[in-house]
Write a structure and sequence with these properties.
Number of helices: 0
Distance between the termini: 9 Å
Largest sheet: 8 strands, antiparallel, barrel
Number of strands: 8
Shape: elongated
Strand content: 35-45%
Helix content: under 10%
Strand order of the largest sheet: 1-2-3-4-5-6-7-8
Structural class: mainly beta
Radius of gyration: 16 Å
Length: 132
C-alpha cells in the first residue's frame, strides 16, 4: 500500500509577501516515514524531484523514484493546490498524487494529499484490479 496523508516540510516558505506562503521546494516527510525532495518551481510552475516510499505492496527492493508535478498559482490565501506523478523504479506502476499546501499561524507548512495508483496488468480483462 502506498500512502498519501500528511507531509511535514523541513523548509519554510521564503516568500516576502504578507500572509501565508507555501514553498514546495525542499525535503518533506510523512507520518509513515516516506520522504520526497522537491525542486524549486520553474516559470511554468512545474517541479521535479524524488520520492522514497517507506511502504509498498511488493517483495522487491524499494528504490528512490522520480516525480514530476505542477502547482497552481496561489490565491490571496496562499495555500495552493498541486499534483505530481511518481514513476516507480521497483514496480510496473505509476501513482498520481493531488493535494493542497496549508500554512498555519506560525508559518508551518503541511501538505495534505490523496493518491491513485495504476499497475500494469497482462490484459484489458484484468483492468478491474489494476487501480487502487
Amino acid at each position: 500500500k502506498l500512502e498519501g496523508g500528511l507531509w511535514l516540510g523541513t523548509a519554510q516558505g521564503a516568500g516576502t509577501t504578507p500572509g501565508p506562503q507555501c514553498d514546495l521546494q525542499g525535503l518533506w516527510r510523512n507520518e509513515l516515514g516516506s520522504n520526497m525532495t522537491l525542486s524549486a518551481l520553474d516559470a511554468a510552475r512545474t517541479f521535479s524531484g524524488s520520492y522514497h516510499t517507506a511502504v509498498a505492496a511488493t517483495n522487491k527492493q524499494i528504490l528512490v523514484s522520480p516525480l514530476q508535478g505542477a502547482q497552481q498559482h496561489p490565491s490571496t490565501k496562499g495555500q495552493p493546490t498541486f499534483g505530481f506523478t511518481v514513476q516507480w523504479q521497483f514496480a510496473d506502476s505509476t501513482t498520481a498524487f493531488v493535494g493542497q499546501c496549508f500554512v498555519d499561524r506560525r508559518g508551518k507548512e503541511t501538505l495534505e494529499t490523496m493518491w491513485l495508483l495504476r499497475e500494469e496488468v497482462p490484459s484489458r480483462r484484468d483492468a478491474w484490479k489494476a487501480t487502487r
